[in-house]
Amino acid sequence: MSEILFTDERVVRAISLIWSEAKLLDDKNYPEWQELFTDDGIYVVPIDPETEDFASSLNMVYDDKRMREMRVERMMQGFSPSAVAAARTVRTVSRFTVESVSDSEVTLKSAQILSAYKRNHFDTLGAELTHTIVLDEGGDRIKLKVVRLINSEEAVTASGYLL
């Protein structure tokens, strides 16, 4: 079934948006990244790799629109450890699987490898991503982004960039 869905124009649009998001994050274009989300969109990085109840779980990040705006402001001000000498990143998002498709929404899972370089040190983070994309003629948007780091239950050194 998944093979057929990859020819579906709605799925192609959702994958294109996810790849565009990755490029914006690598370019540190955080204001434009924020615009990719719906007004009620959530960006979450849970600690528990199995949880689906993000609002009641402990998370590294659980951002609604207001919190994303505050996080982006900190990333761009230069006064926080995450903004001073921010890491350079390159991420690859691949291995897409289609969870659901309708005329208004697509949910995809994928794998992300993020390489970060800061102060003569490389870090590599792997994650399972889930994106729910709202399809709209005025522009597709992210309703939910879940980043399940493969080492989420350990100390994570993801300072200086968004996942």
UniProtKB/TrEMBL annotation:
Mind telling me which Pfam families this protein's record contains?
Answer: Ring_hydroxyl_B (PF00866)
GO MF assignments: dioxygenase activity
In Gene Ontology terms, what is a biological process of this protein?
Answer: 3-phenylpropionate catabolic process
- State the Gene3D superfamilies in the record: 3.10.450.50
Q: Which organism is it from?
A: Propioniferax innocua
Q: What is this protein called?
A: 3-phenylpropionate/cinnamic acid dioxygenase small subunit
Quote the InterPro entries the UniProt record gives: NTF2-like_dom_sf (IPR032710), Rng_hydr_dOase-bsu (IPR000391)
- Which terms are listed as keywords in the entry? Dioxygenase, Oxidoreductase
The entry assigns this protein to a family as follows:
Belongs to the bacterial ring-hydroxylating dioxygenase beta subunit family.
